[in-house]
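Team,

Forwarding the record for the chain on the shared tracking sheet. I've put the sequence and predicted structure together so nobody has to dig through attachments.
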Amino acid sequence: MADESAVELLNEMRRVRAHVLREGDALLARWQPMIKRQAFLPSAHNLARYLALRQLDLRPVQMALRPWGLASLSRKEGHVLPSLNAIIANLEVFSRVNRETERPSLDDFQSSAATLVENTAKIFGPDRDSRRTRILVTLSRRASKDPGFVRALIGAGMDAARINCAHDGPDVWSKMMANVRAAAEEAGRMCPILMDLQGPKIRTQTVRAREDRNVEPGDRILLTFGEPEEDEDFAFQASCATPAVFRQVGEGATVSIKDGLICGRVESTLPEGLVVEVTRTPPGGQPLVEEKGINFPDTDLDVLPLTEADLQALDFVAVHADIVGYSFVQRPQDIALLQSELDKRRQSRAPMPIVAKIETKLGFANLPDLIVQAAGANPFAVMIARGDLAVEIGYERLSEIQEEILWLCEAAHVPVIWATQVLESLVKRGMPSRGEFTDAAMAERAECVMLNKGPFVEEGITVLDNVLRRMETHRIKRSAQLRPLAAWHVLS
């Protein structure tokens, strides 16, 4: 005799699976023209099914499955259909109805993890001994002058090096690369080099500001379309290298300067620029200075993601780097533009690995299409650029959005770089905060963690290597690894 409660749950799970297959296949059909690399097709299919699954509110089903000892659906990202089929096959047994679903094999689950491992290795090289998560380190100019410094970084655990194209130029970049490759060869291992294009970063350029005090709440800043001029009404003024951006911003828009240390809203627009009323700064105010980022979190800006400076840098990057980092990516057309420019410069060479930096609301909203456009033709990874992203979406939502990016990328078998301020106090000042260790430990869920440059970066690498190795014995991605716990000996 059938168990009615099991039958009811079985029917619900079958409805979920039917929805996933129908909607997932429709989404895959829309993506098909973007997929040139057939090896990515199974991953794209799983991503489409994952997005279809997450259209549903699965919380009631999760709770209903627990008394049956079945998976709660919380670890299905990399293998959506096998997860659903496993649950349904068990429910068919519990319900005592005719079995219609073949139970998936262990390989159906392990193959997704193997695909992610393979995709990670294509970009960052093989893993280091017992550590799965790679460490990416931003190089300072010292790396161009001091081969011993670079050897020390690789010896401490650096797996890949990052060169920021916003600084220096081909001469310095070439010296950095030569030192990295010589040190890697000496150590008998790979150390791929990522060159990060600056992109259309909106920054303060020329600044006119009162010398006697900082910007404080209640002040007004004029963001000028041209160069700042003496004006009694505006003691604080700033221009931008891309003034056309300011003309896309309307009254009431939110404005953030210097990573949110100066916040305000556009009070009005004048012929000479945007009038920003400052609503928040740290106690004591904040100086208005040059070369600091400006964000408009609730404004969708139409900005070309490749500037003239980026195209010039790309002439070097496409030939000499191992990976290209892409800033301010917002639309799949942005990815297509970079792919086209790379093809012109690389000609018959293999497709270059691309890392897309997710740092805007629009980039996050378009992430599935960005993944398919990029990974459909190139080895691909995603960087969670937590600095600008936090300003764009609000610090309150950063943890939530970070989780969603990790889930989505795992569904597509795409590696993730956990970036911005990892062990920042340790790297910059030699003394870590307690919260930084928790952040570094949580970073194990990504495939790569990025450290920024600083006087104590070698120590930062050593500490991060230690933390990651420890955490990987407890957890892989979000799956707990039930190793024996040696801290308590409660049994004789």
